[in-house]
Amino acid sequence: MPKIVSVVPKWRFDAVGVTVPETWEMVFVGAEDDAALQKACEGADVLLAPSGFQKVNADLLRRNPQLKLVQASGAGFDGVDLAAARELGIPVANVPGANAHDVAEYTIGLMIAMQRDMIVADRETKNGHFSKVRKQMFLRGLGDMPGSTIGLVGLGAIGRRVAEIARFLGAKVVYYNRTRLAPAQENDLGIEYRSLPELLAQSDIVSLHIPLTSETRGLIGKKEMLLMKSSSTLINTARGDIVDQTALAEMLESGRIAGAAVDVFYPEPPPADHPLLNLSSAARDRLIVTPHMGGVTANSFRRMLNGAMENIRRVCDDEAPQNVVNGL
Fold it and tell me: What is the reported pTM?
């Protein structure tokens, strides 16, 4: 009977109706209990971890070289020591693209919520200030998609879907990617390439859609944010570590950028003293925060979890896993 250790909690399986085969020994471990995780992995065949789970390190892997697979439950695998896994011959796999539309849809929603100042409008209307806040919105001048240049940093499955929706809504879309598309592909998508500094300087909304790697960690720091327009907004539905969050808090406090919407933090969950959770009242009005939920609709999580479970089944049946990300 194969032993599967899951850091993805059982309630997530139950919530989306994904069942575990009776022929597997499934051991559920809390994400915060390091000792229990280490003990559970002894003799395990597969480790199933949430995307972005940061504890699949070299020490854990070297203590458990018998693992046949480390499977991420979504697209992200930045919490796994890929080099150590490769050295030990342990494949690491993800489930790419299963929630691309959902994250893109969420990203567009955040863009529109920021442009229309929906959070402040909601709060002030509920507080009985209907006429006052409506006048403020008129005087301020709210943005819209047809009048905006959207700058996408990263053009994978999510970035492309954001580009398609934004273009449909009438926005101009520019992008920066490590590898530039062929001109025909740019024409098909209706987008234009920019260097990162150009994109930051020209965009009304900058939206991040890149994986967390050693090259992208801290990619958007104070220097980069100072290139942005004072009227621009930063959207991050990728990974918290990509942005210097202390610098972002400073930009919001000073009003140097108009606003930000973040669905991801570093670390997660954010501690009580996290800089983005301790802003002044004025700066808070320029920020939307959500708890890493952009890609977790019931349908998308069911697709991701079923994809992960199918890959685990393959390994348990002595078949080669799919979507291996560490070159094995």
Answer: 0.90
> 209 an active-site residue?
no
Q: Which token pair is 162?
A: 């954001």
Report the alpha-carbon distance of residue 49 to residue 39 in Å, rounded: 15
* Cβ-defined contacts of 316-322 (< 8 Å, 24+): 316/2, 316/24, 316/45, 316/46, 321/69, 321/71, 321/91, 321/93, 322/93
pLDDT tens profile 12-62: 999 999 999 999 999 999 988 889 999 999 999 999 999 878 899 999 999
Looking at residue 254, its pLDDT comes to 97
State the Cα–Cα distance between residues 299 and 99, nearest whole angstrom.
9
- Out of 268, 274, 284, 302, which one is annotated catalytic? 268
101, 161, 286, 292: which is the annotated catalytic residue? 292
State the DSSP string of 59-102: HHHHH-TT--EEEESSS--TTB-HHHHHHHT--EE--TTTTHHH
Does 226 lie in the same domain as 274? yes
Active site residue 198: no
**Same-domain check for residues 216 and 241:** yes
112-99-161 Cα angle (round to 5): 50
Is the domain of 201 the same as that of 64?
A: no
Residues in the chain, pLDDT under 50? none
Choose, from 101, 239, 286, 303, the residue flagged as catalytic: 239
Neighbours of 196 (CB within 10 A): 16
Q: Are 312 and 91 in contact (CB under 8 A)?
A: no
248 C-beta neighbours (distance < 10 Å), count: 23
Q: Are the beta carbons of 33 and 53 closer than 8 angstroms? A: no
Task: Compute how many other C-beta atoms are within 10 angstroms of the C-beta atom of residue 281.
Answer: 6
Range of 201's domain? 100-289
Return the closest-CA partner of residue 173 out of 145, 206, 150, 199. 150
**319 assigned to active site:** no
The answer to whether residues 29 and 149 belong to one domain is no
